[in-house]
Amino acid sequence: MKTTIILVAFLISNIFFGQTTQEVIGNHNGMDVSIFTLTNKSGHVLKLTNYGARIVRIDVPDKNGKIDNITTGGETLETIVKGDAFGGATVGRFANRIANGKFTLDGTEYNLPINNRPNTLHGGPNGWFSQVWDSEIGTKDNQQAVTFTYLSPDMEAGFPGTVTMSATYTWTNDNEIIIDYLATTDKKTVINVTNHAYFNLHGTGKGFIFDHILTINAKNYTPVNDVKIPTGEIKPVKDTPFDFTTPHAMGDAIGKPFEDAVFNGFDHNYALDEKAKVAATVYDPESGRVMEVITDEPGLQFYSGNSRAWLQFKETGTMPAASRSSFALETQHYPDSPNQPSFPSTLLTPNKPFKSRTVYKFSVKN
Q1: 122, 156, 176, 196: the active-site residue
Q2: Which CA distances in Å does 104 have to 98, 111, 161, 189?
Q3: Does the active-site annotation cover 233?
Q4: pLDDT below 70 — which residues of the chain?
Q5: Which of 194, 176, 174, 217 shows the shortest CA–CA distance to 361?
Q6: Is 267 marked as binding a ligand?
Q7: Which of 219, 233, 232 is CA-nearest to residue 275?
Q8: pLDDT tens sequence across 152-167
Q9: Which domains does the chain have, with CATH numbers?
Q10: 3-state helix, strand, coil in the chain (%, to 5)
Q11: I want to staple 346 with a disulfide (CB 3.0 to 4.6 A). Which of 104, 193, 331, 337 is the partner?
Q12: What pLDDT score does 321 carry?
């Protein structure tokens, strides 16, 4: 009788609240690496790993109820460690680029490792994306959650201050990934944190993403030089390929002339409109899937990758040899902010913790 009661209670808990399981998949640098499977009350699944505090799988339905994984990522230790370095990961200490791997704080110049010549990208070659984080399974508002915590020592990758960083992922019963970031430091430093998941709303491995309909609530963007460092300007998106203030396909401008060259794709930061409740929306007409990005960060990096070949596909119907099959929408402060005084500050001090929230919300439209 007691066993029956326990089983019924377990089933009721799964129906109303879902469940989270943990599976150790190997050891990296002396620490266990696990896959965490969060299942909400609808049976939809989010998978995470403590290697890089990253997303590795998102299973959500299309307009016909068919479930697909819509993000890239491995589920074995080898595929995670040897796969895309940034894909799905919590990226820091400083997401995006810092020019020439240098910045000055209170008169002291700090030199960082170069991994995107001539710049530092996403915290350098051994950034937070490559670390094994501590983990704790929990719930938040009766919904499944995992908190990852990492202690970044003073002068790790050249950054000052000992920083304690946590990223809590909550998988809601409404198919929302809520990411809550919290960072504290023992002395002044800089910080910029994002999640670097790649998405394809057709389903992972199911072709191009350039027919996805994108809206970004940003009237301005930060132009970059030839090594992807912001010039310091904040320019209107109007009459440029960067204008997604009205919905249109991601690939519309790719392969077409812009500023005396062929426009090859997006890897640019948008200065988000402050009053917009939703930073960006992506709609896939084929599957009916919709993704909304909600954040309190001032910027959003839209990364489509390289695909001059998209124009070839539209015009001839032939499949190019290589193409971009996923996109990223990275909530963030602006790139190179420590060297750009006019940009929103990325300063972190002992008396003011860094707190931020980003939500990726998935739904369907018939």
Answers
A1: 196
A2: 11, 9, 14, 10
A3: no
A4: 1-17, 305-323
A5: 176
A6: yes
A7: 219
A8: 999 999 999 999 999 9
A9: 19-208+292-364 (2.70.98.10)
A10: 10, 45, 45
A11: 337
A12: 44
